[in-house]
Amino acid sequence: MLAQEVLHRLAARNPEAYGSWGPTNLKQALEPYGAEQYKSNGVMVVAHERVQDAIRERFAEDVADVDDEEGPV
Q1: How many domains does the chain have?
Q2: Neighbours of 54 (CB within 10 A)
Q3: Whole-prediction pTM value?
Q4: Domain hosting residue 63, numbered range
Q5: CA angle, 58 as apex, 46 and 31 as ends, to 5°?
Q6: Which residues of the chain have pLDDT under 50?
Q7: Residue 23: its pLDDT value, please?
């Protein structure tokens, strides 16, 4: 999937959070999750599956952080 398409979809979904993002922001957000961008036919792309995996992993981390903040039940 084109990196620019990922940026466009993020901005459409949440303009306040992602509207000002550029390629560097996307790179920094995806790299920790193994979803690095790469060139294909001269344009920057990222594997769709890797983006989905990164979203799921980040969501799981966010849920774990909330659970940690709430303490034991």
Answers
A1: 1
A2: 18
A3: 0.74
A4: 3-70
A5: 40
A6: 73
A7: 93
